[in-house]
From TrEMBL:
PANTHER family linked: LACCASE-6, MULTI-COPPER OXIDASE
Name under which the protein is recorded: Laccase
Gene Ontology terms: cellular component: apoplast
Transmembrane spans: none
Record note on cofactor: Binds 4 Cu cations per monomer.
Subcellular localization(s) per the UniProt record: Secreted, Extracellular space, Apoplast
Signal peptide range: 1-26
Entry annotated with the keyword Chloroplast: no
Known EC number: 1.10.3.2
Role this protein plays: Lignin degradation and detoxification of lignin-derived products.
Reaction equations catalysed: 4 hydroquinone + O2 = 4 benzosemiquinone + 2 H2O
Keywords: Apoplast, Copper, Glycoprotein, Lignin degradation, Metal-binding, Oxidoreductase, Repeat, Secreted, Signal
Amino acid sequence: MASFTNSLLLWLSLLLLCASTVPVMAQWPGGRSTRFYEFKIQTTRVTKLCNTKEIVTVNHMFPGPVVYAQEDDRIIIKVTNQSPYNATIHWHGIRQRLSCWFDGPSYITQCPIQPGQAFTYEFTMFQQKGTFFWHAHVSWLRGTVYGGLIVYPKTGVPYPFKYPYEEHIIILGEYWLQDVVQLERQVIASGGPPPPANAFTINGHPGPNYNCSGNDVYKIDVVPGKTYLLRLINAGLNMENFFGIANHKLTIVEADAEYTKPFTTTLVMLGPGQTVNVLVTADQPIGKYSMAMGPYMSAQGVAFQNISAIAYFQYLGALPNSLSLPAKLPNFNDNLAVKTIMDGLKSLNPVNVPKEIDTNLFVTIGLNVQKCRSKTPQKNCQGVNNGVMAASMNNISFVKPNISVLEAFYKKIDGFYTDDFPGAPLKFYDFVNGAPNNIPNNTNAANGTRVKVLEYGSRVQIIFQDTGTLTTENHPIHLHGYSFYVIGYGTGNYNPQTANFNLVDPPYMNTIGVPVGGWAAIRFTADNPGVWFMHCHIEIHLSWGLGTVLIVKNGKGELERLPHPPADLPRC
């Protein structure tokens, strides 16, 4: 069976490299070859957790189809929206060099693709390879609309580690019995927190810990002695997650689609939006071992799903009905386990971190509770102390405009955003322990579509500081259009006198988990013109306003200017 699987995988990869390859001009930013895909966003009937319902999917697949390419390839994906909801697709982690129009976040770079409409995304994997993923970027639609995007090295370029026997994509997700679009509307209208997911899923399967799910379980058949590459992706909405395999060690070799120094651990933690590649060797006695996905919840007083999703890492020769050996995951609030993993992440080789800084930003991130202004407070003010839940950066809760920020910027249309996002909070205090907490009297944030404009080529440092209003929490902050060097992080309030920075081999990431009650420092060079969303990847926090936009101006060179918009760009 294994040899048949390998032959099939080899045949499919050869077919992929030949059949979908069309030579194009070598001029950058066109790729070496072009991959064509067609996505149809449509509803599909699924039965999970004793319940049959319609969910929104791509091509009737859950998770959706995997996009395969090689470094420097051009990817063209026609997306047709046959669902009843507005939709867009974001290509998470792809830097979109000179292709900002195709980045995908709704009302940031494009208006949504309306039901019955289509839009073709085109971008080049310029100097990028590794494990990425795609997901919807409207409402909470990405709860079911997601899939892998795997970019292999150029032909003849090896991995910097021993070639694995097989590769497998493992997508961590969350599943709700309720329609996720309606759920978001209800939660926002209530002013209160969201309910926990009904289940965690591994490749769409909850596994045997959940009702009616004994056979709804994902399984990898493994050959004793062989080494496997697992491409882990957290596509969940509102939860960060631990992942581990019973009695097996995981060696991290890539994080956020950039190679790392090999780091061996018993578990990993991924926030929503993060990807990690691990090597696992089947070096244990023949048997059936659990792969487990459980919660990491660093906030206080938040309800969450605490039943682990289970998949099987099953050795050939194991009895099919044998009991699986359980995987031991940390306690749900084990901050030390998370720090230990982060401490182990280093770039594979020394890197060129910007040493001189042109733009310094200090950005507080956290939750707010707004005063109730509704005439029906029982319905609309179900937050803490009868307030309305919100979230903010530098105490400004981001409001999406009703056309895209990119269109307003490109066409110089006034009135949709202001360029006065503050580079630092209005006042400095003990952010972690002395934050305002007289809820809701002093926990309000200002609302606005306020952006920060950066000069092309400027070297940028951002300090993210978690705050203790309502609760401290680990926030996975994602920046579109860029990867960045994570040069430092720590607990407590950021102090430039005592902060330790790694300027030699820091990890190069696109989503950083800012530690609970702590800070993280990132650096990058603003050399990709466009309008780039920077936000918390916990979806409820984004709905509440935890984000802002960085606008990078055009440079002077030919390949430093934003091209004109595509003809089929959706209209609002």
